[in-house]
Amino acid sequence: MIYTITLNPTIDYIVTIPHLNLGHSHHMEEELITPGGKGIMVSRVLKALGIPSIALGFRGGFTGDFVRDYLEEMQIINQFTVIKERTRINLVLKSDQDTEISDYGPAATDEEVAVFMKCFEDISTQDFVVLSGSKLPSMPKDFYERLIRSLHEEGVPFACDITKDELRNSLQYHPLVVKPNQKEVGELFGRTFATWQEVIPYGKQLVELGAQHAIVSLGGDGALLFTPNEVIYAPPLSGKVANPVGAGDSMVAGFVGTFIRTGDALEAFRVAVAAGTATAFSPDIATTKEIEAQLGRVVLEKIE
Length: 304
Fold this sequence. Notes:
By secondary structure, the chain is α/β, with parallel strands linked by helices. 35% of the residues lie in helices and 22% in strands. The chain is built from 10 helices and 14 strands. The protein has helices at 38-48, 61-73, 110-117, 143-153, 164-170, 182-189, 200-208, 247-262, 265-280, 288-295; strands at 2-6, 10-16, 30-36, 53-60, 77-78, 81-83, 88-94, 99-101, 128-132, 158-161, 214-217, 223-226, 231-234, 301-303. Strand 11 (214-217) and strand 12 form a beta hairpin. Helix 1 crosses helix 8, helix 8 runs antiparallel to helix 9 and helix 9 (265-280) crosses helix 10 (288-295). The model has no long low-confidence stretch (mean pLDDT 93).
């Protein structure tokens, strides 16, 4: 079974207003209310790919109930630890310029965290864990590393989509795949990149430092896959970007789900690119049909 970890889930409230005039009242044209958080997004895309998963993390209050009910309606198993403080709400305002207002999230007590940790007692080497997104504000800086070290010591395979020091510290435990974007690679190594080609030496370092595979998303320039033996480039697919939120999570789901099934990194990367593109072209997480429509368009090029 694949377990997805969302320590700090959210309700994403996405509102569309044609023209925003600060200081005035507006009527929204469209709204979309969905559960958010990177691990939850991974579970939703795995569902679209026909792959079951169990979503773990923390939820609280009426907003946490919404997350639970939404996932249950989608027939995604979720075993979130219930906490006293409420799950956060993020506002995304789509207008002349898109604006996002993010809540930091709730705090969890030591007792609540201890209950969450019991969820891992039944996870075995036959399972797989995906760790994604931000921690709860109350958690120590090394919470992810403690969790990853524990999985590694028990021989449980895992992937992670985390950033900065958390990403760096995870590499020594040999995740199946990490998926930073171009900006996050720059933050990790203290660099800025004028072209996507400049990312390549640093993507290789992610593998040299311990990752089994690394995917670097390049936004409008496509994506790169790094393995111990080669670098593969996927050029961007033409289409209109509707909502880039969740595109990276879709790539993680596509790669992990396919690799577990096939053991083929290139095929897993192909599905990852298709899933990420389909979500970027959709107002919400991509459907099975939308992913399949993009899959035949993906081109992979080996970088010498």
